[in-house]
Amino acid sequence: MDLQYKGINKRGRMEWIERDLASSFRPEGLVMEEWQVEQYRPFVHGIRECIGRDLTKDELSTIAWLAGSEQSTVDKIMGVIRAAYDHGKK
Predict the structure, then answer these.
(1) Quick one: DSSP state of residue 5?
(2) Which residues of 55-77 are buried (b: 16+ CB within 10 A; e: fewer)?
């Protein structure tokens, strides 16, 4: 995860750039609003803790997309991941 502050958008909201998600069609990276970053960061960290490795670019892209969902959706997905992790420890 390589987040860089971009500035304020036309809607008056802070924006960040996820530079790890740079591509040929998004050379600077994926632009996210602050509310999405607030869901993205802990989501990425929680998944990393459970799987014991860094996420691939494709996985980060999916997590960024999911972080645009309602917080309850993100929480439920993270709950399933944690349950699988806990089950694997048994």
Answers:
(1) E
(2) beeeebbebbebbeeeeeebeeb
74 by DSSP, 3-state: which? helix
**pLDDT tens-place string over residues 35-73:** 999 999 999 999 999 999 999 999 999 999 999 999 999
Rounded to an integer, what is the distance from CA 36 to the centroid of its chain? 8
pLDDT value, residue 62: 95
Helices 34-51 and 57-66: crossing angle in degrees, nearest 10, is 130
**Residues 63 and 55: beta-carbon distance below 8 Å:** yes
- Give the contacts of 46 (CB within 8 A, at least 6 positions apart): 78, 81, 82
- pTM for this model (two decimals): 0.86
What pLDDT does residue 1 have? 87
